[in-house]
Design brief:
Length: about 120
């Protein structure tokens, strides 16, 4: 069993936000168990643990008590890639569903509005 403990200072500087990551290898699959606050600054470490876990890996979120939008999007991406998500709280599951149904940000090219033609006196021509 491999463990990592990541700690990040809160913006307010009050207390650290901590995520514990455990890799539990079983006969059939590897389970990555997260505990604590899962935030965007932890994504690289969680990705690394998933890669080390091999072909059959699952994310266990039973002990996650705080997640940010990037964490939710990451978990959605994991599911889309076939990674099982276990013990996910109802509020996180609902948030995941809402994120999946959100329209993707699209780059809209706005047509430049043509300025009306004016003569030297500022009158429309």
């Amino acid at each position: 069993m491999a463990q990592s403990l990541l700690s990040q200072e809160c913006a307010s500087g009050q207390r650290p936000m901590t995520l514990k990551i455990e890799r539990l290898s079983g006969k059939r699959r590897t389970r990555i168990r997260l505990s604590g606050a899962f935030r965007s600054e932890h994504l690289d470490q969680v990705k690394a643990e998933i890669e080390r876990g091999g072909p059959r890996v699952a994310l266990d979120l039973e002990e996650v008590d705080l997640v940010d939008v990037e964490g939710v999007r990451f978990v959605n991406a994991c599911e889309a890639e076939g990674i099982s998500v276990l013990h996910c709280s109802p509020y996180v599951r609902e948030w995941m569903s809402r994120e999946r149904s959100r329209p993707k940000a699209r780059a809209h090219k706005r047509k430049k509005e043509k300025a009306p033609l004016e003569d030297e006196d500022g009158k429309h021509v």
